[in-house]
Amino acid sequence: MTTFAKIINVPDFPPREKHPTIFGAFAELQSGEFMQIVNDHDPRPLQYQFMMEYPDGFTWEYLEEGPETWRVAVGKK
Length: 77
Fold this sequence. Notes:
- It is a single chain.
- The longest helix has 14 residues, at 15-28.
- The two termini are 18 Å apart.
- By secondary structure, this protein is α+β, with helices and mostly antiparallel strands.
- It is globular and about 30 Å long.
- It has helices at 15-28, 44-53; strands at 4-9, 34-39, 58-65, 70-76.
């Protein structure tokens, strides 16, 4: 079972703070650590942004895929 250094419930944040909060939390992770993102819709666009910012520096695993809640484990390589 994965232990998460941080769990971010994305709907708790105003729209302009969502991505900065997520990327700030990711920046604080140590190599080998994971955070969990919880959202009310598929965060696929966020995955694309991670691919642009950290092309080989992260892992992305869906833990739950809707229809009401999406949970993603994001790891730092």
